[in-house]
Amino acid sequence: GAVVSQHPSWVICKSGTSVKIECRSLDFQATTMFWYRQFPKQSLMLMATSNEGSKATYEQGVEKDKFLINHASLTLSTLTVTSAHPEDSSFYICSALRTSGNKEYFGPGTRLTVL
Amino acid sequence: SQQGEEDPQALSIQEGENATMNCSYKTSINNLQWYRQNSGRGLVHLILIRSNEREKHSGRLRVTLDTSKKSSSLLITASRAADTASYFCALSGNTGKLIFGQGTTLQVKP
Prior knowledge:
By secondary structure, chain A is mostly beta strands. Chain A has strands spanning about 5, 10-15, 20-25, 30-40, 45-50, 55-60, 65-75, 75-80, 90-100, 105, 110-115.
């Protein structure tokens, strides 16, 4: 089956630091990956669409300069939360769109806590 | 908002009972998917139902879709304590993006 991994699975950082989260499709290529954010007891909200070799497309209200997305290869997308603040504490989930079959596979999520 | 609306928000039942969750939406869809999420964990894909389908089964799961009413339901039969989780519907339209519903938190008491 198609597997998507995220690293790290959890991270605690101080306010003002930057945190990078990796999303990898392990056994398939993904031209498109998605980044979601989920606050406690809430649903997943799409943050941005990451396209290999081009700029990410951000959803309304998501600051592109704060959430930097790099999709440098067909199996890796990274999300960098720059100058993180406590309100950025959340569960960040990525997904990868398998080109063949057009199905979306989700990663296990990364829990970010900003102190 | 395109977001699916789910009800109930929370559901508590005894083991062995059936659990029904509903999802309503406003836009046209290509398909509707149901996911499960255990507390603090990632998503588990349950079922995808296409817009031209009315009902799908997978084990103890039954999903219906009524495009005229823009609603879907997820039925879990003979529930187990391990079914305790949050359940989300997710809409897929022409944009290729998934729009998630607000979720139903299910608690199955042993």
